[in-house]
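User: Quick sanity check before I run a bigger batch. Here is a single chain. Can you write out its predicted 3D structure?
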Amino acid sequence: MTKKNEWQIEREKQQAKNKKAMASLTSEQMQAIKQTHKALRDALSMLTDCHDLYLSDINKLNDAFWSINHQFNLED
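Assistant: Done. Predicted structure follows.
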């Protein structure tokens, strides 16, 4: 069995912390994070492929911004 490097041990610890934190989110918070992740992925893909951004992508980013803002009280 191969001994794990220090960075591998730290990565596994961080992954465990992330998993525990994600499990404690409400369904609305998780949905806001997923919506934001998808909007960012789609917008970045469009920017990379076409060097352009559709208005529909901007609308999705706006919706995701406000969703995550409200779920996590980011501007209090």
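Residues 47 and 53 are 6 Å apart (CA to CA).

User: Great, the batch can go ahead then.
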